[in-house]
Design goal:
Elements lengths: L10 E9 L5 E6 L5 E2 L2 E3 L6 H13 L9 E10 L4 E11 L14 E7 L1 H6 L6 H7 L7 H8 L1
Parallel strand pairs: 1-6
Antiparallel strand pairs: 1-4, 2-3, 2-7, 5-6
Length: 152
C-alpha cells in the first residue's frame, strides 16, 4: 500500500531589511498582489541565507551588499490555510550604502521602491504582503534599537 504524499511548504523566502541612515526601511510594491514587501525572493539550492539576500538585493534594487554584511533577524513559519499559503520566511538585514542608488531593476515584478518608517508599518499594515504582517506582529524582534545593534 502506497503512503499518502505529504505536502511541504511552498518554499523558503528571504526578505532583506535595508536600513538607511534615517532609520527607514526599503519597501517595494509587488506587481502580483499590489502589496508592499521587502526586497527578496526564494532561497536556491545550496545557497546560504546571506548569499540569497545579497543576490536578490542586487537583482531587484541594484544595491551591491556583500553576503558578509548580511545579518540574520528572524525566521517565521507563515501559514494562511485559507489562501493555501505556507512559507518559511527568513528576514535578513543590511545597512544601505549611501553611495549606491536604489533602482527598480524588475519593473515587471515591482512598481517601485520607497523608504518606510517603522510607524508606516503600523499605519499601512493593510498594504503589507502577508508575511510582513506576521513579522510586524513580533515587536520584540523588529524594532530600530535591535536592528541597529545587529548592524553594530
Amino acid at each position: 500500500m502506497e503512503k499518502p504524499k505529504k505536502e511541504k511548504p511552498l518554499g523558503v523566502g528571504i526578505g532583506t531589511i535595508v536600513l538607511n541612515k534615517d532609520g527607514k526601511i526599503l519597501m517595494g510594491k509587488r506587481g502580483d498582489c499590489k502589496l508592499y514587501g521587502l526586497p527578496g525572493g526564494h532561497l536556491e539550492r545550496y545557497e546560504s541565507w546571506e548569499e540569497c539576500s545579497s543576490r536578490e538585493l542586487k537583482e531587484e534594487t541594484n544595491l551591491d551588499i556583500p553576503p558578509d554584511q548580511m545579518k540574520f533577524v528572524a525566521m517565521f513559519n507563515v501559514i494562511e490555510k485559507s489562501k493555501q499559503f505556507h512559507y518559511i520566511d527568513i528576514i535578513m538585514l543590511c545597512r544601505h550604502d549611501e553611495t549606491q542608488e536604489v533602482k527598480n531593476l524588475e519593473p515587471h515584478a515591482c512598481a517601485g521602491w520607497e523608504w518606510w518608517s517603522l510607524e508606516d508599518f503600523e499605519t499601512r499594515k493593510s498594504e503589507l504582503f502577508y508575511p510582513l504582517q506576521v513579522m510586524i506582529g513580533n515587536k520584540e524582534e523588529i524594532n530600530l534599537e535591535r536592528l541597529n545593534k545587529l548592524l553594530a
